[in-house]
Amino acid sequence: MYHDALCFLLYLGRWFEPSPPVMYSDSDEIIIRGIRNRDDNAFHYLQVKFRASIRLMVLEAGGTGEDASDVFSDGIVALIRLVDREDFQLSCKLGTLLYALCNKAWKQQLEKKVPAGKYWYRKEDDGAVDDFTEAQDEALYRKIFWDSFQKLGQTCREILQAYLMEIPPKEIAEILGRSYGFIRKKKNLCHGYLVRMIEGHPDFRKIKQEERTLTTG
Amino acid sequence: MGENPERSAKLAGYIYGDLDLHEMEQIEHEISMDAELADSYRLNVKVRDYLKAKVQLEEMRNDPGLEEAVRLADYAMEPADGSNADKRSGSASGQTVMRSLKEPGPGSLPTGRLPIKGIGSGMHSWRRPLLFAAALAASLAVVLCIRAWMPQDPGKLYYSYYLPFEASDFTRRGDVEEKYRDVSDAIRSYLSGDYHETIRSFGRLSSEPGLMPEVYLFRGLSYMGLGMLENAETELQNCLDDGTRYRPEALWYLSLCKLRLEKYEEAGKLLVDLEYYSGMVGENARELGEKIRRIRK
Questions:
Q1: Which of B118, B180, B181, B198 allows an S-S link to B189, with CB 3.0 to 4.6 Å?
Q2: Which domain holds residue A162?
Q3: Domain edge (last residue) among A127, A145, A172
Q4: Do residues B5 and B188 touch, judged by C-beta distance below 8 A?
Q5: What's the ipTM?
Q6: Chain B stretch 32-51, residues whose beta carbon is closer than 8 A to a beta carbon of chain A
Q7: Would you say A147 and A184 are in contact if contact means Cβ atoms under 8 Å apart?
Q8: pLDDT in tens, chain A (217 residues)
Q9: What does the alpha-carbon distance between residue A48 and residue A46 come to, in Å, rounded to a whole number?
Q10: Of A34, A86, A109, the CB nearest to B91
């Protein structure tokens, strides 16, 4: 919990220089032990905690949901092999390590599919045009969401980021020097404002309009 | 939706898990009745899920420890020494992962270790097996002696006994009886590992007095799954105090909580109560109780 709070402080870059004294947390060590013991809970934790961000990494790099599943599996297998080594010591955050492993796995996958352009042509030739359009829409959604988030005021961004990092509201209040009630209320307002900004985005309205046209025939 | 800031704020509170039980029920009812609100809810969840992943991804990308992580990744995924026979030819399927997880044998060990200069690197080949056998026998003897004398590590002990609860009977019952539909859904969340959702779902069911044993048990189990052992301890104790159902389950998991929280005496007492049960439950309780007694010594 305190580790997350520290990360948050570091992320904001307000109070500390970017040289964190704590590189990894006790919970990371517990997970590593769980992996060594082949504890299902440890693997479940990795799935719940990191799957979505690794999926996003692959999607942002032009991959598909299926690629993302493969990459995540490859990353987990590589992590198991690494952790099983007698000389292994965790010297960075577990999440960052998994990211690096999956990133490498993705690059290896791409090498096998080189040239990437051919890969996409093949996908289209296979008759996956609809999927491709959907993927384009999803990519556009992601761009709209992120652009809108970036346009929020600094306080809004900080509060939402902290909530998204699952830092307890009381800790966020302490870190930002505000009251608990203020943080909760402000978060609701900020999220509402963000969603209204997204709904008003021209590209978002265009996609929605196209969807409505398709469903009404 | 956008025109009603109060409802919009409540929806935000709902998706970030900030509402009390009454407010949650109210907004869930509104979502189920109002198609426009349901659409808005889906968009809100989509935005939250995306941002959560994106914030985490950006944190990883900007982590000062990334360089070290990349070094470890390079090391982990370097080709095996001498040949690429063990190198996977394609991406690992789910089955490959599962096989690797379920069979921690020599096959799952890394193929390329860091080069370590051994003591007998220049030794005659006939001496090596003899020395190896002697060293192995000596090591085994030492390990056995140490195991006999040394207390167990409580953390390791906990993880070697803790397994998520399997509740197939409940899901079947939920499918056939209307009354248990919500319970069944909540238990499915638990079985799928969504502990936060399980806690929320059983929180909604806590207004039903007849379902309190289920509420206490599964909230306790979910807190255990999340590693929040103090909360789990309270819920499981409530389940025991209620005394209606799930006594052996509550005793077992509560004893594990106490073990992890290093309350050995309390854990031991709970396990004594379990020893009277026949089958695996009693056997496990006796075995774990013995190990805890060794720790206490």
A1: B198
A2: 128-217
A3: A127
A4: no
A5: 0.82
A6: 40, 43-44, 46-51
A7: no
A8: 444 554 444 444 433 333 333 445 678 989 999 999 988 889 999 999 999 999 999 999 988 888 999 999 999 999 999 999 988 889 899 999 999 999 999 999 888 776 555 545 544 545 455 556 777 888 999 999 999 999 999 999 999 999 999 898 889 999 889 998 999 999 999 999 999 999 999 999 988 888 778 766 5
A9: 6
A10: A109
